[in-house]
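Notes from the 1:1 (GR / supervisor)

We went over the backlog. Supervisor wanted to see one worked example end to end before approving the batch request, so GR pasted a single chain during the call. The sequence is below; no edits were made to it. Supervisor asked that the structure be written out right there so they could see what the output format looks like.
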Amino acid sequence: MSKVYIRYGIVITVVLIAYFLLSKLVGLHHYPVFSALNGVIFGAGILMAMKKYKDHHRKFKYQKGFQVGLFTGGIATILFTVFMAVYMYQIDSEFSQSIIDSWKLNYESGTAMILASLVLMGFSTTLVLTLAFMQLLKESWNTPEGKKHEL
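Structure output shown during the call:
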């Protein structure tokens, strides 16, 4: 199971980094609204990881599928945050200031605030998408076997 979420977590991270660098190349990386596509990238990666896990296990348990989704998104979130930290502290320190200026805040929050928001957005996106996808992938109790569990 760990191979599934590690592999897909890394794939999600690579796609997120490629999308960020492509938007930087075009000059749109200063607009936070374009980070909405990150949710689509997260969703596609988490869903593929959960389907891959389900395909390789005859008995698909809700807990294991949920774990795969959370760990896949968690790994992607942490790795992408590390990349963004290196990018904002070492490569382009003016990028974080332009993002903070676009937020129109009255206090100096610094790059750490952006990194904290990246982590919070990544984990919350992961949680919501995992919950939604498990509703699609879980086994139904509307079967003869499931009728045994009714009152």
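Supervisor's comment: Helices lie at 2-26, 37-55, 62-91, 93-103, 110-137, 144-147.
Batch request approved.
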